[in-house]
Amino acid sequence: MSANADRFPSVVEIVVEIPRGSRNKYEFDEAAGVYRLDRVLSSAVFYNFDYGFIEGTRADDGDHTDALLVIDEPTFTGCHVWARPVGGLEMHDEKGFDFKVLCVALGDPHQAHISRLDQIRPHRLVEIEHFFETYKLLENKAVQIHGWRDRDRALEVLRADRDRFLAEHGG
Questions:
Q1: Is 161 exposed, middle or buried (0-12, 13-18, 19+ CB in 10 A)?
Q2: Whole-structure pTM over 0.70, yes or no?
Q3: Cα separations (Å) of 98 from 76, 115, 155, 161, 169?
């Protein structure tokens, strides 16, 4: 186990499901322990960030906590990345409340200076919001974006989701 594991929630372990640049929506099947193609995005958009989940968490929707990873080069499905949460995007979809933690990879020196949401390029945040506003439009699924939240809110969500995961696993 890495020393980073003891630094939760200021450092999290992201498991990448979808590498940046993909239109394929992969999801980890926790019961089977495999990655499955959920669907190909029907809108003319692609993931402009690596997307996955945070190990050892359980969100309100029953899945792991969602993670958006800002990194210069895409990784790959199943890649584990130590990352630093800097904020999050609060939204609702067909499953209810949905919080996506925005992180930067510890191993990417181009992101080393970023510790807060206001240090992310503003246009990148607009692009991410636009992606989530439009990626389900042609599937007739409604998404409501409530906006970006700061690092403290992201850490609060992560602590609650870790508590939920530990309670589920008898910890």
A1: buried
A2: yes
A3: 24, 22, 15, 12, 22
- In one-letter notation, the amino acid at residue 103 is C
Residues 157 and 148: their CA atoms lie apart, in Å, by 13
Give the model's pLDDT for residue 1. 56
* φ/ψ of residue 117, rounded to 5: -55, -40
- Domains, the chain, in order of start with CATH, read 3-168 (3.90.80.10)
For residue 84 the two structure tokens come to: 């630093």
Residue with tokens 């993931």: 47
Q: How many CA atoms lie within 13 A of 119 on its CB side?
A: 16
Task: Count CA atoms closer than 13 A to 69's CA, side-chain side.
Answer: 33
19 three-state secondary structure: coil
